[in-house]
Amino acid sequence: MSAISEASTSSIPPAATQERKRLSLDWLGVMPFFLFAVMFLVLPTIYLVAGAFQDAQGNLTFANLVNLFQPSIIDAYVISIKISLTSALLGAFIGFSIAAAITLGGLPSWIRAPMMTFSGVASNFAGVPLAYAFLFTLGRTGLVTYLLVNVFGFNLYAHGFNLLSFWGLTITYLYFQIPLMVLIITPALDGLKREWKEAALILGATGPQYWRMVAFPILWPALLGTILLLFANSFGAIATAYALTGSSLSIVPIVLYAQIRGDVLQDPQLGYALAFGMIVITGISNGIYIWMRARSERWLK
Hints:
The protein has helices at about 1-10, 15-50, 65, 70-105, 110-120, 130-140, 145-150, 165-190, 195-200, 205-235, 240-245, 250-260, 270-300. By secondary structure, the chain is mostly helical. Residues about 1-10 have low confidence and may be disordered. The protein folds into 2 domains: about 15-50, no CATH class; about 70-300, MetI-like fold. One of its GO terms (biological process) is transmembrane transport.
């Protein structure tokens, strides 16, 4: 037996043994990512989902999910979906226009680098600083509001605009939605092969026909997937909305915060159910985004 084991051990090539050790050590490089994902994503999600199906005593119940159908909570979901969808569609349209201009348009090539750098920074600029920036800019005493009144004689608030409203929050969300769209859709636009346009033009197609019959069908999965990602991105935002509007606009993240940390409406179990509903909506959006993105990448390779 010892001879057989020695023979089998000696039959393993040294290179294979070194390769196995190297691969095992390579996993150490990604361990911080997995630990971070488990601690700050997987475990909190499991905790929220479990809390949605428990009462205050820890017993199994479906009452929390039934309470989601209260008129006030349904209205909060409707408002959140409207704001998220509006900001996603506007951000996708404006961001796509900017990305197309810097990749396929006639703009100087040096504009692309600073635009992408700014997009990378602005797409992550959110929360309380963003809310205060818009209050100082478009608030009742903000800089832009002051200039419009004193230089152009136009009062935004006299014509119905209010930063602490549906459109005010939507415009604020556009600050990080547009750059995120630029970052995501630019590689897809770079993937459009020049030969496709040349072939279409040689066959007699016009520019609009090329976009309608060739480019957009190829880009459609990426566009739709990115819109869904923008929707999920704004649907879960709370810091910006809470710092900007407080409780004047009842969107789901603010209602959830009131249930978890509030003094009057405190009901943690209902808050867990609200979070579970948000997880389902954003999970579906992100899942469809990943699927559509994979379809788009097959065409653009």
